[in-house]
Amino acid sequence: MIRHVWYAVLNRFHKGGWPAWAVLGMYAVLALSAQLGTNVAGQGLDPVWAAAQQRGRLRVAVDFGYAPFTGTRQVMMGGQASEQPYGYDVDLAREVARQLGMDVEFVPTTLEAAYETIDTGKADAVISALPYAPEQGWRAAFSTFYFNAGQVLVVRDSSPLQDAERLGGLTIAVALGSDADTLVRSRAAQDASIHVRAAYDTPEQAFAALRAGDADAVVADNASALTAINSQAGLRLVPPALTLEPYAVAVAPRAYLLRDAINGALERLRTNGWLEQNGAKWFQAGAGVAP
Fold first, then answer.
1. What is the DSSP string of 69-120?
2. Which DSSP category does 204 fall into?
3. 45 and 39 in contact (C-beta within 8 Å)?
4. Nearest CA to 140 among 46, 255, 262, 261?
5. Under 8 Å CB-to-CB from 19, ≥6 apart: which residues?
6. C-alpha dihedral (171, 176, 179, 184), degrees to nearest 10
7. What is the dihedral of CA 202, 205, 210, 212, to 10 degrees?
8. pLDDT per residue of the chain (291 residues) written in tens, 0 to 9
9. Which of 114, 108, 119 is nearest to 48 (CA)?
10. DSSP 38
C-alpha cells in the first residue's frame, strides 16, 4: 500500500503538481508510518506491533504450570495474599518488554491453547517454554531460539571426557522412561561398550549417582542438567548437546515487525550475558518451587 501511495506522489511531482518540499514531506510521513507499523490509509502493516506500541504494553500468553520456566506463588501485598508469576520465562518476558520500551501483561493460557491466544488477538506473543514447531507455521511465526531443552551429557569435573559424542566405554545414568533413556539405549544398540544404568526415577537421582561415583556420566534434559550443575559444584556439561529441542517466542504471522523487535531484544540479551545470568538464577535446586 505504501508503495502505491509513493508512486502516486512521484507521478504528481513529475507532472509539476506538487513542489519538491511537499514530496519530501510525504516521504517523511510514509517512512514514519512504516516505522510505527501503520500506513497513511490507517490500515495496519503490522496491527499487533502498532497496537502494542499504542497501549505501551506487551501482552504475553503464559502457561503457569511449568516450573522453573513459569509458575505462580503467593506474595503478601498490602496485607493480602496475591498470586504473582515467577520463573525463567516470566523474567524473560519482562526483560523483552523492557527492551521494547513497554510494560508487560501476562495472559494465562495452556500450552494447548497458546497458539489460539495470538491467533485471536488475546495476546501479542507466547513466551512459555514453547518448543519451536515449524508445523504450526500456518498460524505462528517464531523468534530466534533462546533456550535448548534437548538432551545433554554431564560428567564430574575430574572426567577427561571432552566430546559428548564419544560415549563408548561409559556407564551412563538416566531416568527410567525419559527421553534420555530412549536416546542412550539407541546409542547403546549401536555400540555395545555403552552401559545404560536406568535404575532412577528422576534426573536428580541420576545426578546423585554420578556424584557418588556409581556412573561415569548422566544424560538428561538441559534444564535438569543446569539445575544440577548450578546447585552444587563438581559437575560440568560436555559439548555438544546431544539433541536440539529449542524454545522460541511465538507471534501471529501478521506480527512480523513485533517478531523482528523481539529478535533484536533476544540478540541483545544473548550478547550482554543476560540469558546466561537468567539461567543461573532459575536453574538451581529449589528455584522453581513455590514457597
1. TBEEEEEEETTEEEEEEESHHHHHHHHHHHHTT-EEEEEE--TTTHHHHHHT
2. H
3. yes
4. 255
5. none
6. 20
7. -170
8. 443 444 444 344 344 444 444 444 443 444 444 444 444 344 458 999 999 999 999 999 999 999 999 999 888 777 777 889 999 999 999 999 999 999 999 999 999 999 999 999 999 999 999 999 999 999 999 999 999 999 999 999 999 999 999 999 999 999 999 999 999 999 999 999 999 999 999 999 999 999 999 999 999 999 999 999 999 899 999 999 999 999 999 999 999 999 999 999 999 999 999 999 999 999 986 554 444
9. 119
10. B
Are 47-148+247-282 and 151-238 equal in CATH topology? yes
CATH number of 47-148+247-282: 3.40.190.10
Task: Tell me, letter by letter, the H, E, C secondary structure of 113-181.
Answer: CHHHHHHCCCCCEECCCCECCHHHCCCCEECCCCEECCEEEEEECCCCCCCCCCCCCCEEEEECCCHHH
Give the fold, CATH level 3, of 151-238. D-Maltodextrin-Binding Protein; domain 2 (3.40.190)
**Which grid coordinates belong to 270?**
544473548
Give the HSE-up count for residue 200: Cα atoms under 13 Å, Cβ half-sphere.
24
Q: How far is CA 271 from CA 179, 195, 248, 268, 287, in A?
A: 31, 39, 17, 5, 24
Considering the entire predicted model, what is its pTM?
A: 0.81
CB of 169 within 8 A of CB of 215? no
Domain ranges of the chain: 2-36, 47-148+247-282, 151-238
Q: Could you tell me whether strands 250-251 and 141-142 are parallel, antiparallel, or unpaired per DSSP bridges?
A: antiparallel
